[in-house]
């Protein structure tokens, strides 16, 4: 391992280790592990309940959807596969606004029900949280399962068609093995994501019956300034996160990114019922995902025509600034770590520490940092740098999963050649690694920037009243029932997130 | 003199032995069936895989040297060029691995390209060149590096017979000009007869000692006969 790789790598590892373990230490010194006050049990119960149900519903619905996508060729199929990628980049608070426009009190379904003298729907509470989580994670689960389907050798399908296997036998022989591999890891990944999806709980949950642990942390820190209570809650969140991560590590197969979702398999089944079934499933999902997106667009345009919300420019600049800083930081960390992992014999251990960032939810990191900083400085004054740092930490595991395989590929294909020629250090990076993995770097940086742009998480813990990011501003507008302004901000926010992703991704593939 | 003194390469279940001497400034063909260890032998010589025993060049042990420190240039079967660098840049790497080329360096690159018949192609990217032209560019780079040992791992296997002979002639000319030693892994007995003065037969995880090419083909080892199927 060359000296710069070592220096950069060790610095990056130190930063990650600090981010993972400093909050844990800070929390443990603040709280006794023995007593969990009775008042927090409902929050723990609700968190586990909603995450479990969200995972079960998403994956259950994803099975027929993935199957339909895997075996049908139809016009717009590739558009639909892209549509399934959209919720991943959609800022949660924007999605909530879109869902409310469809399913909310004054959404189109409530209007329709009112026509029959029924309704209106009320989705605040468990229903709303589940709805939003399924909206986000049904597409994710579908993509994970679809990759499993894609891995079935085409000969097997040909054989099944030749032998005219009954649907049941076909399911047992072909599809069961795929599902057995993909379902547990999909369940666990979605469970973990829903455990720590703060913005959804903030906007749609709340009240004593449907408060999550993170929401309780937020209340303890923001309204009661109860550091010990927040630390206790964060420790509980951390323990559950670690347990889920341990399970995911045990059962997980790495199917999140990679593989191609492009080609459907040849389907020889010409019976009408399955075709009708598949068509209706696909249509329902297009509506389920598409309608909120259309609502965001239309309401946003209407909202912006009514006038630009005050303070939008400043909030936008702050958000873009945070997004760029955190994406750059995440990129630097991910590149250093990826080099270190490739070059080091203890690479998997380094990777494991990084993956721990997934288990330590942003809120846990944020709470820990809050407690660490509080004795020395006002955490509220450091709101923006801390948000950028935590956002970088969040994107890091994802970026590493994209960049490390690319780096491995370059080493496999050209490593011997470059070493033989004596290319090393900075010139090897500049002349070989950078040009070769630029597409992956652009893609990963774009993801990090877009996710950071749309994040409504730790900023809520730290932000003083006069400073806001765009998602926070949107949330505050929703809270004061300025729905036009919120819709306008939402459109600007989602457009900026997608633009950031697009620019980096495009920049990586061209230029 | 290139000496392999009790060289043993172990990779999992695979174990390969070589104990032989190759005299300098000539072309040696390495022949033998697939999976017998021909490429493994070259990779070990070039320092890409580890081995026990000693590899000596002109009496000096080079076993502990890194690939770029060894007196060796190696051409692989493919991927000899970086696809995102121009032909000139790819060749220029043979002079400066950081591509900080002086004007004199650049004219050396031009000369080398001319030598392999690629004048005016310097600004092109590798994908616009044919397979044979890409190997010519790689050869130009080896020429500039001027290492005394040239290892070729079936670099022309994908080319047609006429083109392959042409490339072999070019390699042999360059080798003679540079007073270098050439080790050429090939599947094709004709290649060996075309340029090699000695042949090393590699089979059953062992490299045999070199034999003069004429003797080798008039009186081939029985394993070689079963390999070519004559």
Task: Briefly summarize what is shown.
Chain A is an all-alpha fold and 511 residues long.
CATH architecture title of the largest domain in chain B = 3-Layer(aba) Sandwich
Note the main sheet of chain A: none
Quick one: CATH superfamily of the largest domain in chain A? MetI-like
N-to-C SSE series of chain B?
A: EEEHEEEHHHEHEHEEEHH
The CATH topology of the largest domain in chain B turns out to be Rossmann fold
Gap between N and C termini of chain B? 34 Å
Query: What's the number of domains of chain A?
Result: 2
The quaternary structure here is: heterodimer
Question: Could you list the spans of chain A in which at least 5 consecutive residues all have pLDDT below 50?
Answer: 255-262
Could you say which overall geometry of chain B the principal axes of the C-alpha atoms support?
globular
Q: Output the number of helix runs of chain B.
A: 8
Describe the fold and architecture.
The complex is a heterodimer of chains A (511) and B (230). Chain A is mostly helical. Chain A has two domains: 1-30 and 306-511, MetI-like fold (Orthogonal Bundle); 40-299, MetI-like fold, CATH 1.10.3720. Chain A has 20 helices and no strands. Chain A has helices at 3-30, 41-71, 77-89, 92-103, 108-115, 126-150, 154-163, 167-195, 198-204, 213-222, 227-251, 272-305, 312-343, 347-359, 362-373, 383-420, 425-454, 458-462, 470-479, 483-509. In chain A, helix 1 (3-30) crosses helix 15 and helix 13 (312-343) packs antiparallel against helix 14. The longest helix of chain A has 38 residues, at 383-420. Chain A is globular and about 75 Å long. The two termini of chain A are 30 Å apart. Residues 255-262 of chain A have low confidence and may be disordered. Chain B has 230 residues and is an alpha/beta fold. Chain B folds into two domains: 2-71 and 147-228, Rossmann fold (3-Layer(aba) Sandwich), CATH 3.40.50; 81-146. Chain B is built from eight helices and eleven strands. In chain B, strands 1, 2, 3, 4, 5, 6, 7, 8, 9, 10 and 11 form an eleven-stranded mixed beta sheet that branches. Chain B is globular, with a radius of gyration of 18 Å. The model of chain B has no long low-confidence stretch (mean pLDDT 90). Classes of the chains: A mainly alpha (511), B alpha/beta (230). Chain A binds chain B through residues 413-414, 416-424, 426-428, 430-432, 435-436, and chain B through 43, 46-48, 66-69, 72-74, 76, 79-80, 82, 84-85, 89, 93-94, 97-99, 141, 145.
